[in-house]
Every structure is written in C-alpha cells, then in structure tokens.
Amino acid sequence: MPITLEALEIIVRAAGDVAMQYFNDLDSLAINKKSARDLVTDADVAVENYLKQALGEQCPEYGFWGEESGQTANQTSRWIVDPIDGTHSFSKGQYFWGISVALEIDGELIMGAVYGPALDDYYCAEKGKGAWKNGKPIRVSDETSLASSMVSTGFACLRQYLEDNNLPRFNRIAQATTGQRRLGSAALDLCTVADGQVDAFWEQELNLYDIAAGVLIAKEAGATVTDFKGNPGVFPKQVFVTNGKILDQLLPLM
Q: Membrane-crossing residues (predicted)?
C-alpha cells in the first residue's frame, strides 16, 4: 500500500483540526443551502479542500470523490470523502458529526477512517486486518435478543417524498427493541455498530461518501452489511448493518 493507516490518521486528524477551527467559532460560520434542507458550510468546503490536497500529495495516483467538489478524472482507484457528515449537527454546536475518508480500489473498499473531532474518537480499518477505535481493536456486540437490543437510524432530510419512508419501518422496529437512537451522522452511526455501542443501524437514500468508510470499519469489526432484504453488499440507498446475531430477527421488520 502506498499509504499506511498511521499516515492516513495524521491527515484525517489534521483535517479535524481544520473543522474544529470553524466549530469553535460558530457565530462566524457561513451556512448555505444546497437545497431547502441540505446545508453546506465554509467548514465543509475547507475540510474537503484540505483532504483533497493532502491525500493527493500522499497518493497522486488515486482519484478523489468528495461530497462538495465532486469527482476527479480517475475513479478506478479513489478516495471517497465526506468532509463533515452531520453538517446540521455541526452547525448547531452538537458533537456528533464526523469526517469520513475511504480508499476504494477497483470497486473494493480497502481502507477507511471516520473521525469525530468534537468527541476525539478516531475509528479506522483496513480490509482483512481488523478495525480500531483510538488505537484499540473493536468488535460488534454479542447481543442475541432483538427485544434487548439498541438500534439506531436516520431520517435523511430530503427523503420525506418517498413512498417507502423510514417512519413506518422505525415504528415497527422501535416496538420490538429496548432502545432507539437517532444521532445524525451515518458515518459515526456505522462505527457505533462496529464498537458494540448499538446492535444495528439502518438508513435509506444515502450516498456512497456517507457510508464507505463506516461500512468497512463495521465489516472489519464483524458486522453484517446488507440491503433491507438481507443481500450482502454496500448499498447506499438501503444500508443495513447489524452485529450479525440479530439480523434474522430484524429482517422481517425491514
């Protein structure tokens, strides 16, 4: 590999420092709307610009796909980046937002990092080598009972027009589980499954840059990654991640 997890961590943590400069001065933060409920801030742009430059210097042979700047010419081997996943939370001064960076080569996720700067939680994984949080190995939970499970989801702000809306699905699952969370960053939500903090996460109509790093981290920690019908794979439009032990109990409710 032309880059190590250690070298990637230096770059992603430095991007976190860029984000925190804006987060610590929210009164001066410029917030714009890409659409009625979809926000972009100066922080999103600054973090993405930093990552594009730093990753390009480290690995000039790889392309880049960022939420804000789009795709460069080379997309066969590429960095997939969400500079701030959870921009609305960020803009409100909440802590649950993260920087997501994944390396994909020939359609396969190879390396990923998700960093929550306000929490100072750094998650990473490399294909076939495991997943870590703040330098310590992590694994999914051992929970086997759906009734005792804690789950998390998201209600993406642009999806209310969908006939297959998440609210009925949430209502079904909420009645069958002990705890439910809606935290606001799919990238970090996926990492909470990897770390055993929650037992399952699902969301719909996302983009690959929202989930690429998180699903690799979850898979390397032992999670199942499927669509809502249980088909294995990375599906941004139907991402469904569990500890594997409650998958069969959840599937009928999806």
A: none
